[in-house]
Amino acid sequence: MSDTVKYVLDEKDIPRHWYNIMADLPSPPPPVLHPATHQPVGPDDLAPLFPMAVIQQEVSQEREIEIPEPVREVYRQWRPSPLFRARRLEKMLDTPARIYYKYEGVSPAGSHKPNTAIAQAFYNKQEGVKRITTETGAGQWGSSLALAGSLFGLEIEVFMVKVSFQQKPYRRSFMETFGAKCIASPSDMTEAGRAVLREHPDSTGSLGIAISEAVERAVQRDDTKYALGSVLNHVLLHQTVIGLEAMKQFDLAGDYPDIVIAPTGGGSNFGGITFPFLGEQLRGGRKIDLVAVEPSACPTLTRGKYAYDFGDTAHLTPLVKMHTLGSTYVPPGFHAGGLRYHGMAPLVSHITDLGLVRPRAYQQTECFEAGILFAKAEGIIPAPEANHGVKAAIDEALRCKEEGVSRAILFNLCGHGHFDMQAYRDYLDGKLVDQEYDESEIAMALAGLPSVA
Amino acid sequence: MSDTVKYVLDEKDIPRHWYNIMADLPSPPPPVLHPATHQPVGPDDLAPLFPMAVIQQEVSQEREIEIPEPVREVYRQWRPSPLFRARRLEKMLDTPARIYYKYEGVSPAGSHKPNTAIAQAFYNKQEGVKRITTETGAGQWGSSLALAGSLFGLEIEVFMVKVSFQQKPYRRSFMETFGAKCIASPSDMTEAGRAVLREHPDSTGSLGIAISEAVERAVQRDDTKYALGSVLNHVLLHQTVIGLEAMKQFDLAGDYPDIVIAPTGGGSNFGGITFPFLGEQLRGGRKIDLVAVEPSACPTLTRGKYAYDFGDTAHLTPLVKMHTLGSTYVPPGFHAGGLRYHGMAPLVSHITDLGLVRPRAYQQTECFEAGILFAKAEGIIPAPEANHGVKAAIDEALRCKEEGVSRAILFNLCGHGHFDMQAYRDYLDGKLVDQEYDESEIAMALAGLPSVA
Prior knowledge:
2 copies of one chain form a homodimer.
Chain A (H helix, E strand, L loop, with lengths): L4 E3 L9 E3 L23 H4 L5 H8 L4 E3 L2 H7 L7 E3 L1 H7 L4 E6 L10 H13 L4 E6 L3 H13 L2 E7 H6 L1 H9 L3 E5 L5 H9 L7 H13 L4 E3 L6 H21 L5 E5 L4 H15 L6 E7 L4 H4 L1 E6 L8 E6 L21 H8 L4 E5 L1 H15 L5 H20 L4 E6 L7 H8 L10 H9 L6
Parallel strand pairs in A: 5-15, 6-7, 6-9, 7-8, 10-11, 10-15, 11-14
Antiparallel strand pairs in A: 1-4, 2-3, 4-5, 12-13
Helix pairs in contact in A: 2-11, 3-5, 4-15, 5-6, 6-8, 9-10, 11-12, 15-16
């Protein structure tokens, strides 16, 4: 009835290095370009936004990058995070599959986001920065940076996508409890925000707009930098603690994953759990089926174009080559706000382009259905973003049953749903509906892509 | 800046036995009486409410009671829970005190309540029970029993105090996600509820009323039993896993607490962390200062009368001798709903009467202020109930500073505040006000105490 199998690591097993996939890629990802000159950007171009240690990580080719001791110290509060074998779920599905999940909801912010928030706060503090600006969608990233800012004594200013600001007031309370400022975006605090409001006074916002606002506020002030919670190489790098721990835990289990699954919004959750395994494969180790799961209503990897695009709406960021729906595209307001981004991590796009990833998209109701099944079996209510991974894992487990094959399935349960109970309320009340992207709006946004030679 | 000190135990260190303080008390607590005859109740009197294994635990004198393996199996999902040294808080307070906290918010329901919910669900399932009824205040207990019911295949019916049902809709969603039924109390489903509604159609409910409803529903059906989340001996027994683990963790730390602090509503949180330490003291070990913290607006231990009283409003329960404000007293609707009970665990009342406990009461705003200070230092937002323990711990640490003495302070951080962000919102907006109990209402309720020879 209740056989909990938990693979626990000792504190000394918290990785001492992050893993940098750049060292093992068969070809490097296309360079990041300056928005005006379309020439590859150098460290100086990024210096107004990020501390130098972070910029160096962004372009590093070293396989292992040391985790600073003060960062490991904070990690120790909740790391190593547990790896569970989902035996009760396996029984419920009557599947021969071996389902494992890495649970990142044990962090004080309830998701994987502190893995990079702590690191970024540390590097900013070390370089004398006083204040960090950022954007947040569902609020998990903003909460994590608020927490990190509080621990390292930094002011945090969070532009929160307006639709989430209104739907998730408790996320704002969470950030403010840690002393952060939380502003609904688009706001009238920035030129980028005012421009949107002039044209669309009722704009519900988007991550692209919020990024513009946060970037604008950072470049205006010398003592202020900007932080991003996903997409960029250094963010994915910091998240590899997840996969590195999982590898050690599979050693304990005497098993190895055949399939690794993660929800994919900006790509840091996916990169965090898959890159260490993919690195093994690229260095001649066992081949793994990598599944990137995205919402059908924001189908970046499955319907987007692999092209150079801006990370934000106001076109303040450098150009990166990524799967994109167009930087001006505003996705419908579904509940998995963390997956509501027009673009994708360049590294995830690159390996998808290389054929190393199998992307797939799900509607939100089927994801919530899977999440509730999971909660009843395993006792944990997943975040709406995490439900996408749960759904794919259940589908793979059912495929095992159909084919009469036992495969080891690993997914990253990247966060709990404690701040998303309104979404569950809607689902339970039968009010949650699937949302469709607007083909013509995407086409229009893609038509506006910058032309890069 | 960030020196996390976490004392981690191995899975094999999850206790194999609960600790029963009855074996070590200098005198037994007064007997539980039948509500009609005023004679001590026997097992048969309690059989309509509880499974026999639980009834035996309620009256057992054995020092150690074995934890069934299937219960330990579920415990393994989150136990052993971590013990932290709050070094960042110590620095912030500039105190020579050594502050430790045991963190029970790591459970899937976010509080210590699953420690007993899992055990009670197991015993009910084992004895063929199909359905369990219960009441809940803030929702932490109802959520935990919903979780336990889901894992053991039992139907769960939760009567939730109406003011909390309305203030905390997400707790209801949480329970329903696990398949439980959640009913606002007073309801028209029971005679007890209807009686209240006839007299007070706008009643916001109380734990006493909700208990009456749950008990009534249980005794009406042969396949249904009742479960209580605090107060009774067996509940406090199950919670001793907290204190037993903490003792082992203090061994690791090479330290021993001088002061042990816990919030006190029904008493299970307090009993859970203190009884193993008190047992040591009673068997000739080191004397410890035990601090029970309650809300000033429901001051059971500090202002109540130590007398026989009913556990519920409709007087369906047996009579127990406890500190009480009178079973008909309805406390004001403050945010720490889990501490909003007119009575107290008979065991906690008994040891308080024996002079072994130092009770104290705090207003809610000072508790939230302490909670926010704690969050900023330690990264965890405590539940409003837990803030009472935080406040007392901070006060004791400041007393150490004043006196220039280093003492080891242990408190039970019994749950996180993820479902209580509205309370933090109110605090941050300056809208949270202290609430006073009504002296004359308490006097009236106490005047109605049953006269027991």
